[in-house]
Specification:
Rossmann fold; 37% helix; 6-stranded parallel β-sheet; 442 residues; 17 helices; globular
Protein backbone atom coordinates (compact mmCIF):
# COMPACT_ATOMS: atom_id res chain seq x y z
CA UNK A 1 0.00 0.00 0.00
CA UNK A 2 3.01 2.30 0.42
CA UNK A 3 4.72 1.24 -2.81
CA UNK A 4 5.76 4.16 -5.01
CA UNK A 5 5.59 6.74 -2.22
CA UNK A 6 9.37 6.88 -1.62
CA UNK A 7 8.96 5.37 1.84
CA UNK A 8 11.65 4.10 4.20
CA UNK A 9 13.66 1.17 2.76
CA UNK A 10 11.91 1.41 -0.61
CA UNK A 11 14.12 0.35 -3.52
CA UNK A 12 13.12 -0.71 -7.02
CA UNK A 13 14.22 -4.31 -6.42
CA UNK A 14 12.90 -5.58 -9.74
CA UNK A 15 15.25 -3.30 -11.65
CA UNK A 16 18.13 -4.49 -9.48
CA UNK A 17 17.27 -8.16 -10.02
CA UNK A 18 16.28 -8.09 -13.70
CA UNK A 19 19.82 -8.37 -15.18
CA UNK A 20 20.76 -11.36 -13.01
CA UNK A 21 17.57 -13.46 -13.01
CA UNK A 22 15.51 -15.37 -15.56
CA UNK A 23 12.37 -13.38 -14.62
CA UNK A 24 11.07 -10.97 -11.97
CA UNK A 25 7.59 -10.59 -10.50
CA UNK A 26 5.88 -8.18 -8.13
CA UNK A 27 2.63 -9.53 -6.64
CA UNK A 28 0.04 -6.96 -5.54
CA UNK A 29 -2.93 -9.30 -5.08
CA UNK A 30 -2.87 -12.12 -2.51
CA UNK A 31 -5.02 -14.30 -4.77
CA UNK A 32 -2.27 -14.29 -7.42
CA UNK A 33 0.55 -15.43 -5.12
CA UNK A 34 0.04 -19.15 -5.81
CA UNK A 35 -0.07 -18.82 -9.60
CA UNK A 36 2.94 -16.49 -9.70
CA UNK A 37 4.99 -18.81 -7.47
CA UNK A 38 4.05 -21.75 -9.73
CA UNK A 39 5.10 -19.80 -12.82
CA UNK A 40 8.35 -18.78 -11.12
CA UNK A 41 9.18 -22.41 -10.27
CA UNK A 42 8.37 -23.46 -13.84
CA UNK A 43 10.80 -20.92 -15.29
CA UNK A 44 13.52 -21.65 -12.71
CA UNK A 45 13.42 -25.41 -13.33
CA UNK A 46 12.96 -25.19 -17.10
CA UNK A 47 15.68 -22.60 -17.71
CA UNK A 48 18.03 -23.58 -14.83
CA UNK A 49 18.26 -20.14 -13.27
CA UNK A 50 16.94 -17.93 -10.46
CA UNK A 51 13.60 -16.12 -10.53
CA UNK A 52 12.81 -13.15 -8.27
CA UNK A 53 9.34 -12.84 -6.71
CA UNK A 54 8.51 -9.76 -4.63
CA UNK A 55 5.53 -9.91 -2.27
CA UNK A 56 4.88 -6.93 0.00
CA UNK A 57 4.45 -7.63 3.72
CA UNK A 58 0.82 -6.51 3.85
CA UNK A 59 -0.13 -8.89 1.01
CA UNK A 60 0.74 -11.87 3.24
CA UNK A 61 -2.01 -10.77 5.64
CA UNK A 62 -4.72 -10.94 2.96
CA UNK A 63 -6.69 -14.06 2.03
CA UNK A 64 -5.17 -16.02 -0.84
CA UNK A 65 -6.54 -18.54 -3.33
CA UNK A 66 -6.87 -22.32 -2.98
CA UNK A 67 -6.61 -25.28 -5.33
CA UNK A 68 -3.93 -27.20 -7.19
CA UNK A 69 -1.14 -25.38 -8.95
CA UNK A 70 0.56 -26.93 -11.97
CA UNK A 71 4.28 -26.45 -12.51
CA UNK A 72 5.26 -26.68 -16.19
CA UNK A 73 8.91 -27.66 -16.00
CA UNK A 74 9.50 -29.61 -19.21
CA UNK A 75 12.46 -28.28 -21.18
CA UNK A 76 12.24 -27.77 -24.95
CA UNK A 77 13.57 -30.60 -27.12
CA UNK A 78 15.75 -30.27 -30.20
CA UNK A 79 14.40 -30.89 -33.68
CA UNK A 80 15.53 -34.13 -35.37
CA UNK A 81 17.31 -32.23 -38.13
CA UNK A 82 19.37 -30.32 -35.53
CA UNK A 83 20.59 -33.53 -33.90
CA UNK A 84 21.40 -35.08 -37.29
CA UNK A 85 23.29 -31.98 -38.46
CA UNK A 86 25.46 -31.97 -35.32
CA UNK A 87 26.17 -35.69 -35.78
CA UNK A 88 27.19 -35.01 -39.37
CA UNK A 89 29.57 -32.19 -38.35
CA UNK A 90 31.11 -34.42 -35.67
CA UNK A 91 31.65 -37.27 -38.13
CA UNK A 92 33.39 -34.90 -40.56
CA UNK A 93 35.64 -33.28 -37.95
CA UNK A 94 39.41 -33.85 -37.79
CA UNK A 95 39.80 -32.01 -34.47
CA UNK A 96 36.48 -32.34 -32.63
CA UNK A 97 35.95 -31.09 -29.08
CA UNK A 98 32.94 -31.11 -26.76
CA UNK A 99 32.57 -28.19 -24.35
CA UNK A 100 30.34 -29.33 -21.47
CA UNK A 101 28.47 -26.75 -19.40
CA UNK A 102 26.02 -26.67 -16.53
CA UNK A 103 23.24 -27.97 -18.78
CA UNK A 104 24.80 -31.47 -18.80
CA UNK A 105 26.25 -31.31 -15.28
CA UNK A 106 23.83 -33.86 -13.84
CA UNK A 107 23.84 -37.59 -13.17
CA UNK A 108 22.22 -38.54 -16.48
CA UNK A 109 24.07 -35.84 -18.41
CA UNK A 110 27.40 -37.07 -17.05
CA UNK A 111 26.62 -40.70 -17.92
CA UNK A 112 25.68 -39.83 -21.52
CA UNK A 113 28.61 -37.45 -21.96
CA UNK A 114 31.09 -40.08 -20.76
CA UNK A 115 29.48 -42.70 -23.00
CA UNK A 116 29.76 -40.60 -26.15
CA UNK A 117 33.33 -39.52 -25.34
CA UNK A 118 34.53 -43.07 -24.73
CA UNK A 119 32.74 -44.46 -27.81
CA UNK A 120 34.25 -41.85 -30.13
CA UNK A 121 37.45 -40.75 -28.32
CA UNK A 122 36.22 -37.16 -28.65
CA UNK A 123 37.88 -35.11 -25.88
CA UNK A 124 35.76 -33.09 -23.48
CA UNK A 125 36.54 -29.72 -21.91
CA UNK A 126 34.25 -27.98 -19.44
CA UNK A 127 33.15 -24.50 -18.53
CA UNK A 128 33.53 -23.30 -14.95
CA UNK A 129 29.95 -24.38 -14.20
CA UNK A 130 30.45 -27.65 -16.07
CA UNK A 131 33.21 -29.06 -13.87
CA UNK A 132 32.29 -32.59 -12.82
CA UNK A 133 30.08 -33.25 -15.85
CA UNK A 134 32.82 -35.76 -16.70
CA UNK A 135 35.27 -37.31 -14.24
CA UNK A 136 38.42 -35.19 -14.54
CA UNK A 137 40.55 -38.27 -13.89
CA UNK A 138 39.28 -39.71 -17.18
CA UNK A 139 42.01 -39.16 -19.79
CA UNK A 140 39.46 -37.79 -22.28
CA UNK A 141 38.40 -35.04 -19.88
CA UNK A 142 40.71 -32.07 -20.40
CA UNK A 143 39.35 -29.94 -17.56
CA UNK A 144 38.22 -26.34 -17.53
CA UNK A 145 38.64 -23.72 -20.24
CA UNK A 146 38.81 -19.98 -19.92
CA UNK A 147 39.67 -17.07 -17.72
CA UNK A 148 39.93 -17.58 -13.97
CA UNK A 149 41.02 -21.20 -13.88
CA UNK A 150 41.27 -22.65 -17.37
CA UNK A 151 44.24 -24.90 -18.05
CA UNK A 152 46.55 -24.93 -21.05
CA UNK A 153 45.36 -28.32 -22.33
CA UNK A 154 41.68 -27.38 -22.50
CA UNK A 155 42.38 -23.86 -23.78
CA UNK A 156 44.63 -25.04 -26.61
CA UNK A 157 42.20 -27.78 -27.58
CA UNK A 158 39.40 -25.21 -27.80
CA UNK A 159 41.44 -22.81 -29.92
CA UNK A 160 42.70 -25.51 -32.30
CA UNK A 161 39.44 -27.46 -32.70
CA UNK A 162 37.88 -27.55 -36.16
CA UNK A 163 34.47 -28.38 -34.69
CA UNK A 164 33.38 -27.39 -31.19
CA UNK A 165 30.11 -28.69 -29.77
CA UNK A 166 28.91 -26.64 -26.79
CA UNK A 167 26.53 -28.77 -24.73
CA UNK A 168 24.47 -27.02 -22.08
CA UNK A 169 26.49 -23.83 -22.55
CA UNK A 170 27.69 -21.32 -25.10
CA UNK A 171 30.90 -19.46 -25.82
CA UNK A 172 31.29 -16.47 -23.51
CA UNK A 173 33.89 -13.84 -22.70
CA UNK A 174 35.03 -16.12 -19.85
CA UNK A 175 35.53 -19.28 -21.91
CA UNK A 176 37.27 -17.33 -24.71
CA UNK A 177 39.29 -14.81 -22.67
CA UNK A 178 37.26 -11.84 -23.81
CA UNK A 179 36.57 -13.38 -27.25
CA UNK A 180 40.33 -13.29 -27.91
CA UNK A 181 40.79 -17.08 -27.80
CA UNK A 182 38.33 -18.47 -30.34
CA UNK A 183 38.03 -21.90 -31.97
CA UNK A 184 39.58 -22.30 -35.42
CA UNK A 185 36.56 -23.96 -37.01
CA UNK A 186 32.81 -24.38 -36.74
CA UNK A 187 30.92 -24.03 -33.47
CA UNK A 188 27.52 -25.50 -32.61
CA UNK A 189 25.69 -24.85 -29.35
CA UNK A 190 22.89 -26.62 -27.50
CA UNK A 191 21.63 -24.20 -24.88
CA UNK A 192 18.45 -22.91 -23.25
CA UNK A 193 19.71 -19.32 -23.43
CA UNK A 194 17.72 -17.53 -26.13
CA UNK A 195 20.24 -14.69 -26.10
CA UNK A 196 23.12 -16.94 -27.21
CA UNK A 197 22.61 -16.45 -30.93
CA UNK A 198 22.82 -12.67 -30.55
CA UNK A 199 26.35 -12.82 -29.18
CA UNK A 200 28.17 -14.96 -31.77
CA UNK A 201 27.54 -16.54 -35.15
CA UNK A 202 27.17 -20.30 -34.66
CA UNK A 203 27.14 -22.88 -37.46
CA UNK A 204 24.13 -24.28 -35.61
CA UNK A 205 22.34 -23.34 -32.42
CA UNK A 206 19.66 -25.49 -30.82
CA UNK A 207 17.60 -23.90 -28.05
CA UNK A 208 16.91 -27.15 -26.26
CA UNK A 209 17.66 -29.48 -23.37
CA UNK A 210 21.28 -30.63 -23.74
CA UNK A 211 20.72 -33.92 -21.88
CA UNK A 212 17.91 -34.93 -24.24
CA UNK A 213 20.10 -33.84 -27.17
CA UNK A 214 22.93 -36.10 -25.94
CA UNK A 215 20.53 -39.00 -25.50
CA UNK A 216 19.57 -38.77 -29.18
CA UNK A 217 23.10 -38.07 -30.43
CA UNK A 218 24.90 -41.10 -28.97
CA UNK A 219 23.78 -43.69 -31.54
CA UNK A 220 24.18 -41.31 -34.46
CA UNK A 221 27.96 -41.07 -34.00
CA UNK A 222 28.64 -44.75 -33.31
CA UNK A 223 31.55 -45.97 -35.40
CA UNK A 224 33.25 -42.56 -35.49
CA UNK A 225 36.66 -42.19 -33.84
CA UNK A 226 38.56 -38.95 -33.29
CA UNK A 227 41.86 -39.06 -35.24
CA UNK A 228 44.91 -40.26 -33.29
CA UNK A 229 46.88 -37.25 -34.55
CA UNK A 230 44.45 -34.92 -32.72
CA UNK A 231 44.72 -36.89 -29.49
CA UNK A 232 48.54 -36.87 -29.70
CA UNK A 233 48.51 -33.10 -30.20
CA UNK A 234 46.43 -32.77 -27.03
CA UNK A 235 48.83 -35.04 -25.12
CA UNK A 236 51.63 -32.60 -25.95
CA UNK A 237 49.80 -29.68 -24.32
CA UNK A 238 48.85 -31.90 -21.40
CA UNK A 239 52.47 -32.79 -20.69
CA UNK A 240 53.52 -29.11 -20.71
CA UNK A 241 50.68 -28.18 -18.32
CA UNK A 242 51.47 -31.06 -15.96
CA UNK A 243 55.08 -29.86 -15.81
CA UNK A 244 53.89 -26.35 -14.90
CA UNK A 245 51.77 -27.79 -12.09
CA UNK A 246 54.65 -29.95 -10.86
CA UNK A 247 57.06 -27.00 -10.84
CA UNK A 248 54.60 -24.97 -8.77
CA UNK A 249 54.29 -27.77 -6.21
CA UNK A 250 58.08 -27.96 -5.82
CA UNK A 251 58.59 -24.25 -5.13
CA UNK A 252 59.52 -23.11 -1.62
CA UNK A 253 58.47 -19.90 0.11
CA UNK A 254 60.39 -18.98 3.23
CA UNK A 255 58.03 -18.37 6.15
CA UNK A 256 54.96 -19.43 4.17
CA UNK A 257 53.17 -22.58 3.02
CA UNK A 258 53.15 -23.49 -0.67
CA UNK A 259 49.45 -23.36 -1.73
CA UNK A 260 50.04 -25.57 -4.78
CA UNK A 261 51.48 -28.29 -2.56
CA UNK A 262 48.61 -27.88 -0.09
CA UNK A 263 45.86 -28.32 -2.69
CA UNK A 264 47.61 -31.24 -4.37
CA UNK A 265 47.75 -33.01 -0.99
CA UNK A 266 44.15 -32.03 -0.20
CA UNK A 267 42.99 -33.54 -3.49
CA UNK A 268 44.70 -36.81 -2.59
CA UNK A 269 42.90 -37.08 0.75
CA UNK A 270 39.38 -35.73 0.10
CA UNK A 271 36.44 -38.01 0.96
CA UNK A 272 34.47 -39.30 -2.04
CA UNK A 273 31.36 -37.33 -1.06
CA UNK A 274 33.11 -33.94 -0.98
CA UNK A 275 31.70 -30.80 -2.56
CA UNK A 276 34.32 -28.07 -2.94
CA UNK A 277 33.02 -24.52 -3.24
CA UNK A 278 34.77 -21.26 -4.07
CA UNK A 279 33.96 -17.61 -4.53
CA UNK A 280 36.26 -15.45 -6.60
CA UNK A 281 39.82 -14.19 -6.41
CA UNK A 282 43.33 -15.35 -7.25
CA UNK A 283 42.99 -18.15 -4.69
CA UNK A 284 40.52 -20.06 -6.89
CA UNK A 285 43.35 -20.86 -9.31
CA UNK A 286 44.73 -23.42 -6.84
CA UNK A 287 41.62 -25.62 -6.49
CA UNK A 288 40.93 -25.15 -10.20
CA UNK A 289 44.38 -26.56 -10.96
CA UNK A 290 44.74 -29.30 -8.34
CA UNK A 291 41.29 -30.40 -7.11
CA UNK A 292 39.76 -33.00 -9.44
CA UNK A 293 35.98 -32.84 -9.92
CA UNK A 294 35.03 -36.50 -10.23
CA UNK A 295 31.23 -36.33 -10.29
CA UNK A 296 28.50 -33.86 -11.24
CA UNK A 297 28.37 -30.61 -9.27
CA UNK A 298 31.16 -31.65 -6.90
CA UNK A 299 32.92 -28.33 -7.56
CA UNK A 300 30.81 -25.19 -7.31
CA UNK A 301 32.22 -21.72 -7.90
CA UNK A 302 30.88 -18.24 -8.59
CA UNK A 303 32.16 -18.29 -12.16
CA UNK A 304 29.78 -16.13 -14.18
CA UNK A 305 29.58 -12.96 -12.08
CA UNK A 306 32.80 -13.42 -10.11
CA UNK A 307 31.01 -13.06 -6.78
CA UNK A 308 33.23 -12.89 -3.72
CA UNK A 309 31.51 -14.40 -0.68
CA UNK A 310 29.81 -17.35 -2.40
CA UNK A 311 32.12 -20.10 -1.14
CA UNK A 312 31.36 -20.29 2.58
CA UNK A 313 27.52 -20.29 2.51
CA UNK A 314 27.57 -22.66 -0.49
CA UNK A 315 29.71 -25.15 1.46
CA UNK A 316 27.29 -24.95 4.40
CA UNK A 317 24.43 -25.78 2.04
CA UNK A 318 26.34 -28.79 0.68
CA UNK A 319 27.05 -29.97 4.24
CA UNK A 320 23.35 -29.76 5.11
CA UNK A 321 22.62 -32.12 2.19
CA UNK A 322 24.98 -34.74 3.63
CA UNK A 323 28.12 -33.94 1.65
CA UNK A 324 31.48 -32.94 3.08
CA UNK A 325 31.38 -29.21 2.32
CA UNK A 326 34.76 -27.54 1.90
CA UNK A 327 34.89 -23.83 1.11
CA UNK A 328 38.06 -22.44 -0.46
CA UNK A 329 38.04 -18.71 0.26
CA UNK A 330 40.48 -15.85 0.04
CA UNK A 331 41.15 -13.77 3.13
CA UNK A 332 39.40 -10.76 1.60
CA UNK A 333 36.43 -12.91 0.66
CA UNK A 334 36.17 -14.58 4.07
CA UNK A 335 36.00 -11.18 5.78
CA UNK A 336 32.68 -10.68 3.96
CA UNK A 337 30.94 -13.78 5.38
CA UNK A 338 32.89 -15.00 8.44
CA UNK A 339 30.01 -13.95 10.71
CA UNK A 340 28.25 -17.10 9.50
CA UNK A 341 30.65 -19.11 11.64
CA UNK A 342 28.09 -18.34 14.33
CA UNK A 343 25.40 -19.91 12.14
CA UNK A 344 27.52 -23.01 11.53
CA UNK A 345 28.27 -23.41 15.25
CA UNK A 346 24.66 -22.77 16.34
CA UNK A 347 23.21 -25.17 13.77
CA UNK A 348 26.00 -27.75 14.30
CA UNK A 349 27.06 -27.71 10.63
CA UNK A 350 30.59 -29.23 10.48
CA UNK A 351 31.58 -27.28 7.37
CA UNK A 352 35.29 -26.87 6.53
CA UNK A 353 36.84 -23.58 5.41
CA UNK A 354 40.29 -23.20 3.86
CA UNK A 355 41.31 -19.53 3.98
CA UNK A 356 44.01 -18.87 1.38
CA UNK A 357 45.52 -16.02 3.36
CA UNK A 358 47.95 -13.75 1.53
CA UNK A 359 47.06 -10.49 3.35
CA UNK A 360 45.98 -8.94 0.08
CA UNK A 361 43.34 -8.49 -2.57
CA UNK A 362 45.67 -10.40 -4.84
CA UNK A 363 43.93 -10.06 -8.21
CA UNK A 364 44.19 -6.28 -7.86
CA UNK A 365 47.65 -6.51 -6.28
CA UNK A 366 48.83 -8.66 -9.19
CA UNK A 367 47.39 -6.25 -11.76
CA UNK A 368 49.07 -3.31 -10.02
CA UNK A 369 52.42 -5.08 -10.17
CA UNK A 370 52.04 -6.06 -13.83
CA UNK A 371 49.98 -3.25 -15.36
CA UNK A 372 50.52 -0.24 -13.08
CA UNK A 373 54.32 -0.24 -12.99
CA UNK A 374 54.37 -1.75 -9.51
CA UNK A 375 52.41 1.07 -7.86
CA UNK A 376 50.71 -0.77 -4.99
CA UNK A 377 47.74 1.04 -3.49
CA UNK A 378 45.05 -0.31 -1.17
CA UNK A 379 45.58 -3.98 -2.02
CA UNK A 380 47.76 -5.09 0.91
CA UNK A 381 46.16 -5.36 4.35
CA UNK A 382 46.34 -7.05 7.73
CA UNK A 383 44.13 -9.86 9.00
CA UNK A 384 43.04 -11.37 12.29
CA UNK A 385 44.28 -14.84 13.18
CA UNK A 386 41.48 -16.75 11.43
CA UNK A 387 42.16 -19.98 13.33
CA UNK A 388 41.90 -18.15 16.66
CA UNK A 389 38.81 -16.29 15.47
CA UNK A 390 37.18 -19.64 14.67
CA UNK A 391 37.76 -20.77 18.26
CA UNK A 392 36.22 -17.53 19.56
CA UNK A 393 33.05 -18.44 17.64
CA UNK A 394 33.09 -21.95 19.13
CA UNK A 395 34.45 -23.65 16.02
CA UNK A 396 37.86 -25.27 15.58
CA UNK A 397 40.83 -23.92 13.67
CA UNK A 398 44.48 -24.30 12.80
CA UNK A 399 47.08 -22.06 11.14
CA UNK A 400 49.50 -23.43 8.54
CA UNK A 401 52.56 -21.39 7.59
CA UNK A 402 55.00 -24.07 6.37
CA UNK A 403 54.92 -27.11 4.12
CA UNK A 404 55.78 -29.54 6.92
CA UNK A 405 52.49 -28.66 8.65
CA UNK A 406 50.28 -29.40 5.65
CA UNK A 407 49.51 -33.11 6.04
CA UNK A 408 48.74 -33.00 9.76
CA UNK A 409 46.54 -29.93 9.32
CA UNK A 410 44.52 -31.56 6.53
CA UNK A 411 43.98 -34.68 8.64
CA UNK A 412 42.87 -32.60 11.61
CA UNK A 413 40.45 -30.58 9.49
CA UNK A 414 38.85 -33.59 7.79
CA UNK A 415 38.46 -35.52 11.04
CA UNK A 416 36.83 -32.63 12.92
CA UNK A 417 33.14 -32.94 13.77
CA UNK A 418 32.78 -29.18 14.24
CA UNK A 419 32.95 -26.20 11.87
CA UNK A 420 36.65 -25.87 11.08
CA UNK A 421 38.80 -23.03 9.71
CA UNK A 422 42.23 -23.78 8.25
CA UNK A 423 44.22 -20.54 7.95
CA UNK A 424 46.64 -21.25 5.07
CA UNK A 425 49.24 -18.50 5.22
CA UNK A 426 50.91 -17.89 1.88
CA UNK A 427 53.09 -15.28 0.23
CA UNK A 428 51.27 -12.66 -1.88
CA UNK A 429 53.98 -13.37 -4.47
CA UNK A 430 53.43 -17.14 -4.55
CA UNK A 431 52.97 -18.60 -8.03
CA UNK A 432 49.36 -19.41 -8.95
CA UNK A 433 49.32 -21.75 -11.97
CA UNK A 434 47.28 -20.40 -14.87
CA UNK A 435 47.44 -20.25 -18.66
CA UNK A 436 49.34 -16.98 -18.94
CA UNK A 437 49.28 -16.40 -22.71
CA UNK A 438 45.51 -15.98 -23.18
CA UNK A 439 44.93 -14.57 -19.68
CA UNK A 440 46.93 -11.41 -20.40
CA UNK A 441 44.56 -10.68 -23.29
CA UNK A 442 41.66 -10.08 -20.87
Amino acid sequence: KLYGKNTMLEVDQQSVMRPITMATYRVEDAKKVRSVIAEAFSIAIRECGPVYVEVAEDIWLDEGSEGEVKIEAEKPKAREEEVEKVAEMLREAEKPLILAGFGVNSEEGSKLLTEIAEKTSIPVATTGNGRGAMDEENNLCLGRVGFGGGNMTADEALRNSDFLLCLGCQLTDISTYGYNWMPSGKVAAVTLDREAGKKLNYALISYSDAVDFLRRLVDRVSGYKAPESWLKEIEGWKSIWEQILSNAVNMEYKGFANPSKFFKRLNETLPENTVVTAGQGMHVLYPQAYIKAKRPRSYLAATNHGAMGFGFPAAMAAQLLGYTGIAVVGDGEFMMTLQDLETAVREKIPVKVVVVNDNSYRVLYFRQKIQKMGRIYGTLHTNPDFSELARVFGAEGIAVSSDVEIDDAIREMLSSEKPFVLDLRISPDSFAPFNFQPAVKM
